[in-house]
Amino acid sequence: MKTIILRAASNYMLPLLLVFSVFILLRGHYLPGGGFVGGLVAAMAFVLHAFANKLETTKKLFRMHPGFLMPFGLTLALLSGLMPMIIEESSFLTAMWLSEALPAIGAVGTTLFFDIGVYLVVVGVTLTIIFTISESS
Amino acid sequence: MNENIIFYPILVQMAFAILLMFLWMRVEWQKWVSIIGSVLNLVVASSLFAIILREGTTSVQAGGWEAPFGISFVADALGVTMVLLTAIVGLAVSIYSGVSVNRARLKFGYFPILHLLLLGLNGAFLTGDIFNLYVWFEIIIISSFVLLTIGGEKAQLEGAVKYFTLNFLASMIFLTAIAVLYGLTGSLNMADLVAKMAAVENRTLVQVNALLFLIGFGIKSALFPLYFWLPASYHTAPSAVAAIFGGLLTKVGVYAIIRMFTLIFEVDSLIQIVLLSTAVLTFFSGAIGSLVQNNIRKIFSYLIICHIGYMIAGVGMMTQVALAGAIFYLIHDIVVKTNLFLMTGLIYKMKGTHSMRKLGDLYAEYPLLSLLFAIPLFSLVGIPPLSGFWPKLSLIEAGFDTESYWIIGAILFSSLLTLYIVVKFWSEVFWKPGEQLPNIKHFRYFRKLKKRHKWRLVAPVVFLSLISLYIGFGAESVMELSNRISDELMDPQHYIEAVLPST
Fold first, then answer.
1. Residues of A in contact with B3 (CB under 8 A)
2. What was the ipTM of the complex prediction?
3. Residue ranges of domains in chain B
């Protein structure tokens, strides 16, 4: 789609939507939201950008193939599960929390890192699928 | 003891799957990393096996949420035996894949997916929560679908569509059954379900629910009317993939049936007649299907179906001896079936064809390897003292105990059919003077391979044959293990106490 309005808008929408996706990610612990939804919103931001501009332009925003976000996300999720096993010898995936809540973000624990891992995997998977489909068509 | 050790087989596979994803572009490295991962997994699995056998059933609650609210992982003798077998088969297949699977497939992430499949298998054998079991089944089905389609040949895609449709249907039925189960009892923890299921008053609904589970797992383990996806798809995949599918995937279904019908559901007269008659029909449809095939991989695909019947017959009779026979058969069958598919891959590498009519002369050309191939083939038939003989003995004994003589007849007849198929296979492929086969250009024939590559193809077959021989000649220790597993299954009190210590 080559409408100038959409292209101009998409350039502003991309950072806005990315910030919004991080907001959803952080909101997720007690309220609706979380890594999965946040990741989908972030992926949609890039898809919108790819619609308005060309797929090549969107791809240039990534230094490497978005598929490589998958192993990074999985590592983060795995490590957040391993942390309580190593540090306090409790069960795999037990939540560990900082004793005091951080300003603006709120309480931070291993679950947040797990959620960030999910976020990265979802972005990676969704973009890999969509980029592959739009390349082959 | 630190209970977290139960997670180790799952974590090792997960860590290596991630590591292999990081090495996406470096196919040569992936081969070695995969072997290292499988060796490490074997070490972890065998130490878990040793510890659990010494200390008895142990459980751990993921995330520290108490059962029955959180997700329990339980390591009992059956679970850790399956995890150990998965590790053995995984090691053999990961050594074999490095040479046999072609580069085009390896480039699309064959090894990470292989380890994700093993991750799913390990998880399914260790979980103590029925919904979690569903999730592991999904991981297994998704990664097996990728392994089946990777390479994108036309025949592969056709097989994969059938495979995926029917397995997906099975998952849906499984999920429906879980929903009914949860509606009846309000719990998904297997140990908690034992008491809650027994207290349900509406027994008809329980029976319907049991049948739903049986249909779901029956599709996955290729039972009589529901097996068509298996011979339609297994022969299309690369032989390394077919080996791990043939060895383990159908057996997960059998494992789940054993779990469900020893813990949660009773084998009452209706279920018993259903299980036993399906077992008998599975024998015959598998064996007769196998008789008329010409493609050597299809022959073994049908034999997988045929031999699933033995385990189901064991579950159907539901005595201590019958269950021990079924468990022994499960142990024997996983090793032998994997080995047979690796063997067909080697035969293909030697001759360039899967057609039994065209093959021949293998004994004249490769006498030593032919003798090696004789081990899995004759173990499969169960010529004493090889490994297939002992579980059949237990099953027949159980048949006399329960006075189900028709089962004995069916077991003996299907053994005879298996013997006939194997003898036919042996005389056609190994002894018959073969046709002059056309030389395929750019095909990596076995004789043209470098010596170390040859070894990497043969070593897994030797490894699995040695294990088969051990199961046959060291039958006493395997029988002891099977008896112990069967005792534990018949009396689930230990399982319940391990998960819910308060009761």
1. 91
2. 0.90
3. 271-494
